[in-house]
């Protein structure tokens, strides 16, 4: 993998030199490559075996405020020349935009830190199939009401990213990602329910055991049997930790530069203003070793840094790329390509303690639909989960809609738990909102 990355670094340097020779004012070149194995089993049979080995080199050139881009999967000298020439030709026909261009050189990560993101796992196809089967077999044997399966999937991938530009930056890093998932179907009387479980990590040895993933998938499916509907009304709502990250995901969209400079966010001009209750803090930590969303630089080569996103409930920063920053008269925050390891502070306890805090209300474990308007904050999504009474789960619920406005939802946050979900880019526990509109019968 390291040898391949070094070869690509050489081709990136060649592409930058070609762009300069063709008269480009500036250029940037990026390439990601991924290779690996994915296997799926269902009811003891092998459904799919997929080998992946792909990647493409993309080049963007800038000429007198104009921008042109092209890409190629062929890294031969001739193909590289054609791609660079194509980008230069395209730039001749695009409009002048004073905000386009490379990130400022002073902000670039010229010597990025090694974040220990690459953990190779050599796994034969037979071994991978055996792991997926073990996961699914455990799930099927968990309970006689587990009557069917949508299968188990094991995926092991490794790859690298290389980025260079005409400021003299040429950087890259290898990475890996391993995952195991299982989807089971439970049946009792006339009711049938489906649910899943999964584990993901940069290090294969840190994945949850296949037996446990299978048991969790079956347990989740069983817990949903005989779901009921709710009466329409306003009730407290708790988002389980693995669902709570979507709540903060809408916040990310609202403070992202693209929506801000287009004036398409309900959080325009919110910098420094209280968005959440003052107990809440959100910190970004891009340099955590082995973490899934760690990166020493963003997709424009800008160095990532630790920063406060929310401090005592107030918004400390927007999420900006170089382009959106220039549109807003600000400086990029190193968020081209996304966020990096958000950590949400907790003021509540573990999952059971959070149920006690909820008291009587709705626990949401699944969301459906995309009824979220970032322009005005209106929120309406289908939901399923459990009705909680006096701090105890009473029965499963389905076919309900929860609605509100994100601005109010953010302010009505009353608790964040310590039952952290760490399978994504946002580390958060379950959250409790004081009140939401729930539509059922």
Automatic annotation (TrEMBL):
Residues 27-91 form the Metalloprotease TldD/E N-terminal domain. Residues 232-440 form the Metalloprotease TldD/E C-terminal domain. SUPFAM superfamilies: Putative modulator of DNA gyrase, PmbA/TldD. Its EC number is 3.4.24.-. It is an enzyme of class 3 (hydrolase). GO terms for molecular function: metallopeptidase activity. Gene3D superfamilies: PmbA/TldD superfamily. It holds the Pfam family PmbA_TldD_3rd. Residues 122-225 form the Metalloprotease TldD/E central domain. NCBIfam families: PRK11040.1. This is Metalloprotease PmbA. It comes from Thalassotalea castellviae. The lineage of its organism: Bacteria, Pseudomonadati, Pseudomonadota, Gammaproteobacteria, Alteromonadales.
């Amino acid at each position: 993998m390291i040898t391949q990355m070094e070869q690509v670094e050489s081709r990136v340097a060649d592409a930058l030199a070609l762009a300069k020779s063709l008269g480009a004012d500036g250029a940037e070149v990026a390439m990601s490559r991924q290779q690996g194995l994915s296997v799926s089993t269902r009811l003891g049979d092998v459904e799919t075996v997929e080998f992946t080995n792909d990647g493409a080199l993309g080049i963007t050139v800038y000429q007198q405020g104009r921008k042109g881009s092209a890409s190629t999967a062929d890294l031969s000298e001739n193909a590289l020349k054609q791609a660079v020439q194509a980008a230069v030709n395209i730039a001749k026909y695009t409009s002048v935009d004073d905000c386009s261009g490379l990130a400022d050189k002073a902000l670039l990560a010229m010597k990025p830190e090694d974040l220990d993101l690459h953990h190779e796992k050599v796994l034969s196809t037979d071994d991978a199939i055996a792991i997926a089967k073990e996961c699914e077999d455990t799930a099927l044997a968990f309970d006689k009401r587990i009557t069917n399966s949508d299968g188990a999937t094991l995926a092991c991938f490794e790859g690298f990213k290389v980025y260079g530009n005409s400021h003299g930056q040429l950087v890259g890093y290898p990475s890996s990602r391993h995952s195991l998932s299982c989807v089971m179907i439970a049946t009792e009387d006339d009711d049938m329910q489906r649910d899943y479980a999964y584990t993901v990590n940069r290090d294969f040895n840190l994945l949850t055991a296949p037996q446990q993933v299978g048991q969790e998938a079956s347990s989740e499916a069983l817990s949903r049997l005989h779901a009921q509907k709710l009466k329409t009304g306003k009730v407290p709502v708790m988002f389980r930790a693995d669902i709570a990250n979507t709540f903060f995901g809408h916040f990310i969209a609202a403070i992202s530069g693209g929506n801000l400079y287009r004036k398409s966010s309900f959080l325009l001009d919110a910098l420094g203003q209280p968005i959440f209750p003052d107990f809440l803090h959100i910190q970004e930590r891009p340099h955590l070793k082995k973490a899934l969303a760690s990166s020493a630089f963003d997709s424009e080569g800008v160095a990532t840094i630790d920063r406060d996103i929310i401090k005592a409930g107030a918004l400390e920063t927007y999420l900006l790329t170089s382009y959106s920053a220039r549109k807003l008269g600000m400086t990029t925050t190193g968020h081209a390509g996304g966020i990096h390891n958000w950590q949400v502070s907790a003021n509540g306890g573990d999952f059971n303690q959070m149920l006690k805090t909820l008291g009587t209300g709705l626990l949401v474990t699944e969301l459906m639909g995309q009824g979220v308007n970032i322009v005005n904050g209106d929120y309406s999504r289908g939901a399923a989960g459990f009705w909680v009474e006096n701090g105890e789960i009473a029965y499963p619920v389905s076919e309900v809609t929860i609605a509100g406005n994100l601005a109010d939802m953010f302010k009505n946050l009353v608790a964040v738990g310590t039952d952290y979900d760490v399978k994504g880019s946002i580390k958060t526990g379950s959250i409790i909102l004081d009140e939401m509109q729930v539509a059922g019968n």
